[in-house]
Specification:
The complex is a heterodimer of chains A (486) and B (95). Chain A has 486 residues and is an alpha/beta fold. Chain A has helices spanning 6-15, 20-38, 46-62, 103-111, 153-160, 177-183, 217-227, 245-248, 271-286, 302-317, 336-347, 350-363, 369-389, 415-419, 426-431, 459-471; strands spanning 41-44, 72-76, 114-119, 166-170, 186-189, 210-214, 257-261, 290-294, 395-399, 435-443, 446-454. In chain B, helix 1 packs across helix 2. The longest helix of chain B is centred in the N-terminal third of the chain and has 15 residues, at 24-38. The chains are: A alpha/beta (486), B mainly alpha (95). Chains A and B meet through helix 10, helix 11, helix 12, helix 13 and helix 14 of A and helix 1, helix 2 and helix 3 of B.
Chain lengths: 486, 95
């Protein structure tokens, strides 16, 4: 049952082959059996999941169902969930029971989806390896000594091991696509403004965007469909009709123009990853796509621009964590300043502190023009490169990450090297474009991801290309060893 | 741009962020590495380029000035570290 597609699961529920409660029990049992090896969950919500499953079974009796009714999913612990701890992977929010639901949480509840629990993540989504979590690192199901990627590492690892058929994620610089690549699952980050950020704990507000993890593009399309849409409670949400993503899946690829940016295939790219992506490009040409070499001349500046913009916005967003209204408070503060300084000093981990310090420095008097303003100017140059590219091609294709999953601890002491694992994903966030990662092969036993980048609001086209590729490949159906029992 | 451990102390103070003295050297090294990495931005001429705040150059929407939130003080204060009589408690601010 755990290897079925969402469409098959939905059909099984509709026909009465199995109930939502049985389906939920199946995945809860998988979590309980296997998550000890992965640490992909920080909170299991067994009781509320079974209650939601029983409510979904009732809905099937009345016929008022959606494509996600009764379908279990895992929710990244960055989305507020009323009555359930929302920790954001931090000691700061270890005791934080959200008093309201994020819009995404609410929409999935309304659809009848069944939340099994909350997934582990890098602290406040700051990290590329899931090693900065207060709850300990997540392990990659393909090799437990390696990282799953981050920051949505728990969601990616859980879907890879099929502890749930679907999971939510967020992506500020690659936090859906990079872990999807490293864990061998499908992940999509839509256009900035497509999914509401209301109730999604903010890291870098001009870059943060929620998206979906699944085993396949067809499954991801269903989850994204339920998550996306205009929300007046998010001031940067875009009021624009939502495409039918599942309907877009079957479009023909003949005549599709795919651009290969030369900057994303140069020095620093693992040869095994390069070979896998080249083979995937071949498959797409067999399906009728045309390939064209393109250039994104300012691509190399995306990581440096990001490490000004993201920390600057994080230092501002995280100033709300002050030990007064919610979250962690230090013991016996001497005075108000001591309360702020020690609550924040004890509540935040090292990477979050580094980013707050960098951001505070970049925004401090006398440095604003040299750092933040300069980075925002470079950001426009990066965006303009993409605008030019999309006048020539429909989709841009590249590796998602320069190498397969690295070892736990391998990059933990060197922030700049760690930041470079997002070298192919970050520009997409700076430009606000949709991007996804699709399983495209293996190097040894480690998965490789292919990144697809679309023009604004072209999520349907990305899912279409990924789906067509998945019809002629089976990388996305591979299951890591040791997770086979029901 | 390189940051020394005194600068780490000053920045941490601006952020009201507790950083142990023994960690100042380590943070100084990390921050200097990140800032020197970021200096690549200086290699490109951005004169005349408008800074980009929003990918679609969207502006903030206005809405009617109406009360839409309900009073949920009790629920919000239930998760606060210390409250009394509907007020958030902090150490004494005025002597």
């Amino acid at each position: 049952m755990f290897q079925k597609t969402i469409s098959e699961l939905s059909a099984g529920l509709r026909s009465g082959e199995f109930s939502c409660e049985e389906l939920t029990e199946c995945f809860l049992a998988r979590v309980e059996r296997y998550d000890g090896q992965l640490n992909s969950l920080v909170t299991l919500t067994r009781d509320s999941a079974l209650a939601a499953a029983r409510a979904a079974d009732q809905r099937f009796k009345t016929g008022e169902v959606t494509p996600l009714t009764g379908i279990p999913y895992l929710h990244k612990d960055i989305f507020c969930t009323e009555g359930v701890r929302t920790s954001c992977g931090s000691r700061m929010l270890d005791n934080f029971i959200a008093p309201y639901d994020a819009t995404v949480t609410q929409k999935l509840k309304d659809a009848g989806a069944v939340m099994l629990g909350k997934t582990n993540m890098d602290e406040f989504a700051m990290g590329s390896s899931n090693e900065t979590s207060f709850y300990g690192p997540v392990r990659n199901p393909w090799d437990r000594e390696r990282v799953p990627g981050g920051s949505s590492g728990g969601s990616a690892a859980a879907v890879a091991a099929r502890l749930a058929p679907l999971a939510t994620g967020t992506d500020t610089g690659g936090s859906i696509r990079q872990p999807a690549a490293l864990c061998g699952v499908t992940g999509i980050k839509p256009t900035y403004g497509r999914v509401s950020r209301y109730g999604m704990i903010a890291f870098a507000s001009s870059l943060d965007q929620a998206g979906a993890f699944a085993a396949s593009a067809a499954d991801a399309a269903r989850l994204l469909q339920a998550m996306a849409g205009y929300d007046p409670r998010d001031s940067t949400s875009i009021d624009r009709p939502l495409e039918d993503y599942s309907a877009a899946l079957e479009e023909d690829l003949r005549g599709l123009k795919i651009g290969l940016p030369k900057e994303y295939f140069g020095a620093g790219l693992d040869t095994g990853v390069a070979d896998a992506v080249a083979a995937a490009v071949q498959s797409l040409t067999h399906l009728g796509a045309e390939v064209k070499d393109i250039s994104l001349p300012n691509a190399a500046l995306s990581v440096p621009a990001y490490y000004v913009v993201a920390p600057a916005e994080c230092s501002s967003n995280l100033s709300r964590m002050d030990g007064v209204r919610f979250g962690y408070r230090c013991d016996n503060p001497r005075d108000l300043e001591d309360l702020y300084v020690r609550s924040r000093g004890e509540g935040f981990g090292a990477e979050v502190k580094r980013r707050i310090l960098i951001g505070t420095y970049a925004l401090s008097a006398g440095y604003y023009d040299a750092y933040y303003l300069k980075a925002q100017q470079v950001r426009r140059l990066i965006r303009d490169d993409f605008v030019r590219a999309f006048s020539e091609v429909d989709v841009i294709l590249s590796p998602t990450a320069p190498a397969p999953a690295f070892r736990l601890g391998e990059k933990a002491d060197d922030p700049v090297t760690m930041y470079l694992s997002d070298i192919y994903t970050i520009a997409v966030n700076l430009a606000g474009l949709p991007g996804m990662s699709v399983p495209a092969g293996f190097v040894g036993n480690l998965p490789v991801g292919m990144q697809l980048i679309g023009n604004y609001f072209d999520e349907g086209r990305l899912l279409n290309v990924a789906h067509r590729y998945q019809q002629v490949s089976d990388w996305h159906r591979q299951l890591p060893v040791g997770f086979e029992a029901v | 741009m390189s940051v020394d451990k005194e600068a780490v102390g000053r920045i941490a103070h601006l952020a009201r962020l507790g950083v142990e003295e023994t960690e100042h050297d380590n943070y100084a090294r990390n921050l200097s590495a990140i800032l020197s990495f970021v200096e690549q931005l200086d290699s490109v001429d951005t004169s005349g380029v408008a800074p980009m705040a929003h990918p679609l150059d969207a502006s903030q929407r206005l809405r009617p000035d109406e009360v839409t939130e309900t009073d949920r003080r009790e629920q919000f204060q239930a998760i606060a570290p210390r409250v009394e009589a509907g007020l958030y408690l902090v150490p004494k601010v005025i002597e």
